[in-house]
Write a structure and sequence with these properties.
Length: about 170
């Protein structure tokens, strides 16, 4: 069985597989440019440090890239990977807090009252609120991203907003 070839713009003949890979790489690069900042904002809303948010986002893009040709909904997969990465980061932080309670000396506390208030909410409520209001996702998209039912999303958003108001009013 022979390999198929296609003439490139410079007249050289390239195998079709190479061209397909180039097209896929170009499409992924465009996807990356379009989705990078929104995903960093989403991650930042969940984990509250720019460094962690960027790392989570990069890891999520790496997962998407590995599966790029097999994904039917790369945007949904990316959001889910970002949320799962943030959850993982928050679990690691909780373990570190149990081992070393308190803020390390010399690390200034950033004053962002909304993020401080969000930090006091349970993880699922905080995640739903951040996906809705930072990520601008619909209830259906939040349900897909979190792996829950749309009715549960409505409940989490309603309870989260109520609890957030109470935290802010204190």
């Amino acid at each position: 069985m022979g390999t198929s070839s296609t003439a490139t713009c410079d007249g050289a003949v390239a195998p079709t597989e190479v061209l397909d890979e180039r097209v896929a790489a170009d499409v992924f690069a465009e996807f990356y440019r379009a989705e990078y900042l929104p995903m960093v904002r989403l991650a930042f809303g969940l984990v509250d440090t720019p460094e962690a948010a960027e790392e989570i986002t990069q890891d999520a893009f790496a997962k998407v890239f590995e599966r790029w040709n097999r994904l039917q909904n790369p945007g949904g997969y990316l959001r889910t990977a970002v949320v799962n990465g943030a959850r993982s980061e928050l679990r690691k932080r909780e373990v570190r807090r149990r081992i070393r309670p308190g803020r390390p000396q010399g690390v200034p506390a950033q004053q962002d009252y909304l993020l401080d208030a969000l930090e006091q909410l349970p993880t699922r409520r905080r995640t739903a609120l951040v996906l809705r209001y930072y990520g601008d996702l619909s209830e259906r998209e939040i349900a897909e991203t979190m792996g829950i039912r749309p009715g549960t999303v409505k409940s989490l958003l309603s309870g989260g907003l109520t609890q957030l108001r109470e935290v802010i009013d204190r």
